[in-house]
Amino acid sequence: KKLDCKQLVAYYQKMIASPFDIYIVGDIQYEPMIRLIKQFFVKKTVNKKNYIPALPLSTSIVSPKIVHKNILQTRLAILYTTQKVFSDKESYALRILNDILGGGMQSKLFLEVREKKGLCYSISSTYNSSYGYLLIHTGIQAKNVKQVLQEVQKQLDAIKEGKFTQKEVQRSVDSFCRGIQSYKDDCFAYIDLHVRYASFHQPFDLEDILVQYQQVTKKQIMEVAQNIQYKTHAVLTKKGE
């Protein structure tokens, strides 16, 4: 609401003067395209930006936080550190681990905490490879906060102990591989993935990425799980609870 036309124009001028990358994907004639790029763009700016490498989040524990707002459903977020970021080969195993833990309706968190225990309305997990953290987010009743914290830790401990099947591993691997294959048919998604790899100075090859996922083993998942540590949690709940 505070934005006005003058601010938007100023931002636009700043944006077009910033360094940029050009991606061209498809059946093109390479040499004519290079000539056009040099003619219209190369004199304007050259992207010399130094990308900051991904750094894992500190493992130091932070005091839990409770925020009160006028809401109907309590939200609980639990943060864990993994010590593995995008540039680490182990990040592939962590993505599979995250999918098994809380990646969907077949995940351990969904089946055990929501379906079997009935402790939450929704629950899922996300692995952020930029900062190497695992985030569990769930919608619950305020009275269930402590029990949900315990059950989430219980499911994570189960993975650390190898209490998951090869079938679960393969299902997650197949899901990721289908997702990677779909990039071949979506130019914008392909470019977006390439930019992500380039940002972390990683070689980009879809076939190699597929191989990395296909080579993830149950043992590797258990190994990366050992480094996952609780950092903090936050509760968003209505006033008076």
Automatic annotation (TrEMBL):
Superkingdom, taxonomy of origin: Bacteria
Residues of the Peptidase M16 C-terminal domain: 6-174
SUPFAM superfamilies: LuxS/MPP-like metallohydrolase (SSF63411)
Gene3D superfamilies in the cross-refs: Metalloenzyme, LuxS/M16 peptidase-like
Molecular function GO terms recorded: metal ion binding
InterPro entries in the cross-refs: Metalloenz_LuxS/M16, MPP/UQCRC_Complex, Peptidase_M16_C
Annotated protein name in UniProt: Insulinase family protein
